[in-house]
Amino acid sequence: MEHLKEEMRKALAVALPGQDITLERPRSGDLGDAAYPCFRSAKNLGLNPVQLAQELAAKIRIEGADVVAAGPYLNLKLRPGVRAKAMLEALLGSTPYGSAPANSETVIVEYSSPNIAKLFTIGHLRSTMIGHALAQVNRYLGCRIWRLNHLGDWGTQFGTLLAAYKRWAEAENPRLDQDFEWVDEIPERRRTPLFRLFQLYVRFHQEEEQNPEMRDEARSWFKRLEAGDPEARRLWIWFRDISLTEFQRIYDRLGVAFDTLEQGEAFYEDRLKPTLERLADSGLLQEGEGGAKIIDLTDAGIQTPYLVQKTDGTSIYATRDIAAALFRQEEYAFNRCIYVVGADQVLHFQQLFAVMNKLDPWFQGRMLHTPFGMIKLPEGKMSSRKGNVIFLEDVLDEAVQRVLAIIEEKNPDLPNKAQVAELLGMGAVVFFDALNDRVKSITFTWDRVIALDGDTGPYVQYAHARICSVLRKAGAAWAEQARPTNLLTAENASVAFGEMPLPASMEGLEDPAAQTLLFELSGLPEAIRTVQRENMATALARQLLAIAKAFSGFYTQCPILHPENSPAIREARLALCVATARAIRQGLFLMGIKAPEEM
Ligand code: ARG
Question: What pTM, to 2 d.p., does this model score?
Answer without folding.
Answer: 0.94
